[in-house]
């Protein structure tokens, strides 16, 4: 197998892996996270997008007053954010896999024919050199 064909095969393999990762997003998607504080009287839910989706305060929490609510919303929110961070495993942004795949497709479409042409040219030059000996 020529180097151009080997390159094309490896690139196609990498693109297939990328396509598989984007085809099964359920494995990689975040799920809503709920945390509570104040003996369960304050609950905060983060949506799959990481934004606050819901804050729930029990009637007893309201009887405790605004300072109690504010403190335990803060504690529950931080706990939910910690849970989300542990689930994701990184603070880095997740790359746009579809954009990466599109970029790789452009590289493959442009480079592979050029590598093939270059390989053919080198083969012709070597054939001429070997014929002149």
Automatic annotation (TrEMBL):
Alphabetized UniProt keyword annotations: DNA-binding
- One Pfam family from the record: YbaB_DNA_bd
Task: Tell me where on the tree of life, at the top rank, the source sits.
Answer: Bacteria
Q: Which InterPro entries match?
A: YbaB-like_sf (IPR036894), YbaB/EbfC (IPR004401)
Q: Is tRNA-binding a UniProt keyword of this protein?
A: no
Residue ranges annotated as transmembrane are none
Against SUPFAM superfamilies, the record matches this protein to: YbaB-like
GO molecular function terms attached to this record: DNA binding
Q: What is this protein called?
A: YbaB/EbfC DNA-binding family protein
Organism (species): Glycomyces sambucus
């Amino acid at each position: 197998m020529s180097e151009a064909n080997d390159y094309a095969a490896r690139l196609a393999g990498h693109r297939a892996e990328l396509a598989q990762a984007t085809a099964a997003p359920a494995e990689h998607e975040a799920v809503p996270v709920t945390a509570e504080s104040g003996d369960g009287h304050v609950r905060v839910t983060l949506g799959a997008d990481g934004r606050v989706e819901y804050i729930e305060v029990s009637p007893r929490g309201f009887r405790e007053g605004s300072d109690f609510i504010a403190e335990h919303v803060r504690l529950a929110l931080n706990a939910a954010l910690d849970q989300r961070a542990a689930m994701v495993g990184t603070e880095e942004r997740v790359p746009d896999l579809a954009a990466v795949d599109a970029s790789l497709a452009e590289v493959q479409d442009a480079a592979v024919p050029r590598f093939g042409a270059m390989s053919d040219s080198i083969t012709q030059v070597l054939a001429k050199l070997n014929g002149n000996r």
